[in-house]
Design the sequence.
């Protein structure tokens, strides 16, 4: 919906095929991001850990994604972070899709050596973006691969990792109301049983006992 509303109003390339290509890329980026956040939640398993560890992952992905810090400015010992960042593939694919349009490639500018160069190629080189036209499909495939990887990782985390901390039972409204009807406050109901004054009674046995007393 965002692409449909903003694509032409923001002045992107007017060709219809480039519109649908960008729509595909934004959809893949959204799916990748959803899988990434699910994977972080599955790995961290705690709100506190997710806020710290997840923020670290996102910081690496954003800073080394090629937009905030161009590829040539990334230190050599951090270049691995550039290649594992999913944003690299989306960013390069979006840029190639736009700057290979005729309105950019049919115009020429002079490079620093006085040699004519297509404006689109000059823009890509100036932004430290790959100039190969096939990078649209490379980026789309990379985003699809990251989407599958993150969702598989999330599934494995749910399968093999245990929750952190001590599990707590959730008391339904019906159970709590039943406890109140028996004269017990809601706070004393736990794990399907009722506790009061140090004693523990099952709801079913309490009902039967009340019934016998009434009789």
Sequence:
């Amino acid at each position: 919906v965002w692409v449909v509303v903003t694509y032409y109003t923001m002045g992107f390339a007017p060709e219809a095929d480039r519109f649908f290509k960008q729509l595909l890329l934004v959809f893949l980026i959204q799916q990748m991001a959803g899988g990434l956040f699910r994977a972080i939640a599955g790995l961290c398993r705690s709100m506190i850990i997710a806020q710290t560890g997840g923020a670290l992952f996102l910081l690496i992905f954003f800073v080394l994604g090629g937009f905030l810090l161009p590829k040539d400015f990334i230190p050599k010992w951090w270049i691995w972070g550039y290649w594992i960042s999913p944003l690299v593939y989306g960013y390069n694919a979006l840029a190639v899709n736009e700057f290979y349009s005729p309105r950019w490639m049919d115009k020429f500018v002079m490079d620093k050596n006085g040699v004519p160069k297509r404006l689109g190629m000059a823009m890509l080189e100036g932004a430290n973006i790959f100039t190969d036209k096939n990078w649209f499909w490379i980026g789309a495939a990379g985003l699809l691969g990251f989407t599958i990887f993150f969702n598989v990782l999330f599934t494995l985390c749910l399968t093999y990792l245990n929750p952190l901390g001590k599990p707590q039972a959730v008391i339904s409204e019906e159970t709590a109301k039943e406890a109140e009807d028996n004269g017990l406050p809601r706070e004393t109901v736990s794990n399907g049983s009722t506790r009061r004054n140090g004693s523990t009674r099952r709801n079913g046995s309490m009902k039967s006992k009340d019934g016998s007393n009434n009789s």
User: Anything to note?
Assistant: The radius of gyration is 29 Å. The chain is about 60% helix and 5% strand. The beta strands are 108-110, 116-118, 189-190, 193-196, 199-202.
